[in-house]
Model the fold of this input.
Amino acid sequence: MKILMVSLDYPPTVGGITAHVYELSQALKNIGCHVSVATKFVEKGQKAFETVDGIDIYRFNLKYIGFTYGYQINKFLKKLAKENHFDIIHIHGMRPLEFYNIKDIPLVYTNHTSGYLKRIKKGGYRIPLLKRLFSKPKLFLAPSEELLEVPFHIDAKKVFISNGVISSKFTRNEEVRKKLRAELSIKDDEILAIMTRRMVWKNGINYLALATKYIKNDKLKLLFIGDGEQFHEVKNILEENFKNRFILLGSKKHDEIIDYYSASDLSILPSLMEATSISGLEAMAASLPLVGTKVGGIPVLIKDGINGYLCEPKDPKDLAEKIDKILEGDLTKMGENSKKFVEENFDWIQIANKTLNEYKELLK
Done:
């Protein structure tokens, strides 16, 4: 099957959609599909076409101003489709939907973004716009049940298919753990919690910063990997409540992040909106237990008392209580449960096979 993935987010950019599109493309390739990706130029020196990791990458420039981007993308896709005869076009993110009008190839759409949930909440003119966009796909996928909820009728078949992870990539490395903990000045008796999240509203990092005021365990340190509009707000709160007990590494490329999971003992997901969290899956694959909020796809990952604890969103006191609670338990055993749960349910090959089955149904 010849599949064209369309996404403005693709390596070397970082983030959940980037990881999803890259790993799904790799897994589909590994089960016998021919996968191409249409994405935008993001760095100088990139080629308009190249094959990277077995995937054909076609890049386009976006010129002028934002509202013309959809038109430019559609023009590029029509030319590409005419030259390559794809069986399926699979769009990730709303922008490429705006002017999309290719009629003779079935369209699949994955509704990744929590920005969609914001649009629904705000309502108004946004609802007719979403109706127009969502009338185009024949198959509507989402990595959380919450992102499948559309407050109006659409003709597309709606299917929940979670994000995935390649568990073997994140296997714990004790040598790396010792090296990085020494570099980070983490003592043997200290506990390190990792957050690999952009510091933006939806990820709730500011609520974790506020929770530090109530955390009782004095052996806990926090490691933040990510940047964003709330970076300075988070830093200021931590300076006030958790001085000398946090590390801010800023943004890092995905491959650079992996080793830091080995250095850590648990992960925290204080999200306000979330699909099946890729950073949560990665932490679980690295044998880490989780504390996370009861939103979106996070309860799919965390089984209370088995591999972590769930807390209320926007509630620093409850978050602090659950962090203290998990620190009183057996982090190693909970981490082993995380690893096992991921391997049995969230391997990317499993996710790719589910996706391919839906493609095949569409082509019948």
The chain has a mean pLDDT of 94. The CA atoms of residues 276 and 297 lie 4 Å apart. The longest strand covers residues 34-40. The first helix runs from residue 16 to 30.
